[in-house]
Write a structure and sequence with these properties.
This protein has 13 helices and 8 strands. It is α/β, with parallel strands linked by helices and about 300 residues long.
């Protein structure tokens, strides 16, 4: 294949796209030219992530830099992130260049790899950890918040989603020192109303823009005054109630900039809703959303 035809096909990757026949031609030509960046990108297009990572690990520093630039130009939700993870593990000196190349990528595309999670849980910090901007933890992984490496390794995390079904509480979450978080989702945790109030008014996570609380249980006995339509969801024996959150706010105002608050699958009735919306803290809420909460007729 002539150089002009080769370059024209390469250009089509990020414009009109290439068909199967063109892919095969282009891949053969890239291999013949030992064009490492193009070989890696073509592996990714074909869904061959392991091959892309393996090939990227064998190239010299200049070729690795070119691969980083090529991947950064792809769809951020492609498998390119996994390849970049492999590159920075073998060439840690490129972490700064990779960070700069990914500046335009959405937060959701830069998820915490399982291997890096394991390192942080063991208290090990590496500069490459700062590339991570999105973390989702299930109940068995929440202990990473107690790691001495947590605050440093996850300092750039902006999206944090935590399922605390297997233990852990708001105290260790708020004490993890993840001050860059702008979006926080907490599900299935046993909480005190006061701790929820602290979270809403801004005792932690100073840059928070979105907070979602879902399916939380209270550490206090259920009031028992509500009928079954207000026990949402049914599989939570002791749901956190809206008026309990109001008591936890205790007349305080928010200490953070305006943000969005989502309350999902909590115990509620008209009395609880009225108690909550009367709190000064909600004056600082940009948006208040309810989901999975069924109110009695008095809520109207």
């Amino acid at each position: 294949m002539q150089d002009a035809a080769y370059l024209a096909l390469l250009a089509k990757i990020t414009t009109t796209g290439i068909d199967e026949a063109e892919f095969e031609q282009l891949f053969a030509a890239a291999v013949a030219r030992d064009d490492a960046p193009s070989i890696v990108v073509l592996h990714l297009i074909a869904g061959r992530v392991e091959e892309a990572v393996a090939h990227a690990a064998r190239v010299d520093a200049d070729a690795a830099r070119a691969i980083v630039r090529h991947i950064a130009a792809l769809d951020p939700h492609s498998p390119g992130w996994d390849t970049l993870v492999g590159i920075v593990e073998t060439r840690p000196e490129l972490v700064g260049e990779i960070e700069a190349a990914l500046a335009a990528w959405p937060v959701s595309a830069r998820c915490l790899p399982a291997a890096w999670l394991a390192e942080i849980r063991k208290g090990k910090h590496h500069p490459r950890h700062r590339l991570v901007q999105s973390v989702m933890l299930d109940g068995s992984e929440v202990d990473v918040l107690r790691s001495p490496a947590c605050a440093r390794s996850l300092a750039n995390v902006q999206h944090l989603a935590v399922n605390m079904a297997e233990g852990g509480g708001l105290a260790e979450l708020q004490g993890a020192g993840l001050d860059a978080v702008t979006s926080l989702s907490i599900t299935q945790s046993v909480v005190s109303p006061r701790a929820v109030g602290d979270l809403i008014v801004g005792a932690s996570f100073p840059r928070l823009q979105r907070l979602s609380l879902s399916g939380l249980s209270s550490d206090r006995p259920y009031s028992g005054r509500r009928e079954y339509p207000n026990l949402i969801p049914r599989d939570i024996d002791n749901p956190l109630e809206l008026d309990a959150i109001a008591k936890g706010l205790d007349g305080r105002s928010t200490q953070r900039p305006r943000f969005s608050l989502g309350l999902n699958a909590l115990g509620s009735d008209a009395e609880g809703l009225r108690a909550l919306v009367r709190q000064p803290a909600l004056a600082g809420i940009e948006q208040l959303a309810f989901a999975g909460i069924y109110l009695d007729e008095g809520a109207a």
